[in-house]
Amino acid sequence: DSGVTQTPKHLITATGQRVTLRCSPRSGDLSVYWYQQSLDQGLQFLIQYYNGEERAKGNILERFSAQQFPDLHSELNLSSLELGDSALYFCASSVASSGRAHEQFFGPGTRLTVL
Amino acid sequence: TQLLEQSPQFLSIQEGENLTVYCNSSSVFSSLQWYRQEPGEGPVLLVTVVTGGEVKKLKRLTFQFGDARKDSSLHITAAQPGDTGLYLCAGAKAGNQFYFGTGTSLTVIP
Lengths: 115, 110
Description:
With 115 residues, chain A is mostly beta strands.
């Protein structure tokens, strides 16, 4: 158990819909990262927040957005869903925002299926 | 193309054999990590290497960071079925950009 929690574990929805994925980081961690993992794309970095502020952006679509709240939990919002958005979505947390370590602890993931 | 390329992509070996997984890039990284992931679960951090030429050992696993900090290798001695999984390298660059490798799927046959 990494200490990172994600809800829900599974999500099934239809094209065009909007969903929200939730992540609670490990106690004491200020950074939250979101990743998308699909069979053909591997693990893709989406976005990072540190102590409530966006710190880095990866391959995140404009239809996706995220935020980190004062209690440090984070939400990833996916809208106008397409079939290709079906994937595992992972949240990870770390103590550091920058620097050389970037050691991340991953949650169990949310499996999103878009029908 | 991915910034970090791993080879081989798939590896199936017998229990007791040795193996090496490579993680290569043309870019320099400030640090590099190795993770292991089992199906349906999140990656689990194995090790972080920071200094060029650094070697770290974790039981039967040996990790090396290239002198120029562009590549890394993972060597497993006497592989066991419990080593089966997806091995991912990940590198951090300036500007908080973080990249995962393409992954190596290892199967150790009893």
